[in-house]
Amino acid sequence: MTEKAPWITYRPELKVLDCTIRDGGLINKHQLSDDLVSATYHACIAAGIDYMEIGYKNSPRLFSPDEFGPWRHCNEEDMRRIVGEHDPEATGLKLTAMADATKSDWQKQIGPADESVLSMIRVAFYAHQVSEAAEMIQHAHEMGYETCANLMAVSNFSESEIDTVLATVRDTPAQIMVIVDSFGHLYREQIDALYTKYTQALEGTGKEIGLHMHNNLQLAFANTIEGIILGANRADATVFGLGRGAGNCPMELLLGFLRNPKFKLRPIIKLIQDYIAPLREQIEWGPLVPYNLTGQMNLHPRNAIEWREGDEKDDFVAFFDKVVADV
Are 297 and 194 members of one domain? Predict the structure, then answer.
C-alpha cells in the first residue's frame, strides 16, 4: 500500500464517505425531507462515492420520534423507503450509520447485517466512553458489519487519554480509526502529530486511519488534504459543507482534489444546485464569526449555535466578550 501520493496522481485505495445527511441533519434535528435524502443517495451513487452515512442509530427513548426525524434512528423501514433493496455491489455504494456511546440502544438497534441495508456501523464516543465503545464495536462486528471507531473532540483530550483510547481500540475488530476534529480547532501540525500517534499505536493491526474535519477555522479541507498526503485512506466530507455550526469538509472540493477518475463531480454540483443551496433559506451553516471564535478557543459550537438563534445574532463583539469572559 502506498504511503504518499505524488501531487498529480491518485491513490485508488482511498475511500470517501459522505456524511451529509447524518452530520447535516444535526442542524434541524434530522427533519430532512425524503426527497433530499433520496437525491443525496442517488448523487452519491452517480458520483462514485464509496460510503454514505444515512444517519444515526440513536435511541428513540432519548431522541423522541415526535421531535427528531427518522435519520436520528435509521429504522430499516425508513431506510428502505429511500433506498429500497439496496445492493452495494450493484451500486458501488455502501451505506453506514453512526451509533453514539450512551445514546444508542445498540443491543437492540443494531441487528444482523444480512437483514439490513447497512454495511458499516461507525461508533462515536468520547475518551471516557471507550469501554462501551469497544463493546459496541464488538457487537456490530459479530452482527456482520464493517466497523469504525470515531473518537470525538480529539482536541479536547490529553495525550494519555488518547493513548488509552488507541490501546483499547487496537484490540477491537474496528477496521478504521478516525481523527475527528469536532470543534474545528486543529492546525496541520496537530494533524501531523495525531496521524503519527494513531498509526504508531495501531501498527500491525491493518486498521486504516480516517479523517473527519469541521470548518470553524476554514481549515476542514486543508486538514483533510494534509491527512491524505500523510497516508490516510479514509476521508469524510459533506456536500456544500453541510453540517452543524461551521460545517464540514466540502465534498465538491475533496473530489476535485483526489483526481481519481472514478469520482464524478457533476452529480454533486447538481445536488448542491437543486437541494443543498436552497436549504440556506431554512437553516444556517458555515464558518461565521461565532464559529470561528469557538474553533479558536477549542470550544463546542453549541454556544455559537444558540447565539445565532437569538435576537443579537449579528452582534459578534458581544459574543466575543461573552466567550472570552466564560473562558
Answer: no
User: Structure pTM?
Assistant: 0.95
Looking at the domain assignment, is residue 5 inside a domain? no
- The one-digit pLDDT tens for each residue of the chain (327 residues) are 455 555 557 899 999 999 999 999 999 999 999 999 999 999 999 999 999 999 999 999 999 999 999 999 999 999 999 999 999 999 999 999 999 999 999 999 999 999 999 999 999 999 999 999 999 999 999 999 999 999 999 999 999 999 999 999 999 999 999 999 999 999 999 999 999 999 999 999 999 999 999 999 999 999 999 999 999 999 999 999 999 999 999 999 999 999 999 999 999 999 999 999 999 999 999 999 999 999 999 999 999 999 999 999 999 999 999 887 776
DSSP state of 207: P
Burial of 317 (0-12, 13-18, 19+ CB in 10 A): exposed
In a domain, 1, yes or no: no
Q: Is 299 found in the same domain as 219?
A: no
How far lies 224's CA from each of 43, 167, 299, 315, in Å? 22, 24, 20, 31
Cα 241 vs. chain centroid, distance in angstroms?
11
CA distance 205 to 176: 10
Q: Are 274 and 295 contained in the same domain?
A: no
Asked if residue 309 and residue 214 are part of one domain, the reply reads: no
Q: How many domains does the chain have?
A: 2
Same domain, 80 and 202: yes
183 and 310 share a domain?
A: no
- Rounding to the nearest 10 degrees, give the CA dihedral for residues 249, 285, 181, 319: 140
Rounded CA separation 171/192 (Å): 24
Q: State which residues form the domain around 105.
A: 15-281
> Which H/E stretch holds residue 316?
helix 316-326
Kindly tell me the burial class for residue 114, based on how many C-beta atoms sit within 10 Å of its own C-beta (0-12, 13-18, 19 or more): exposed
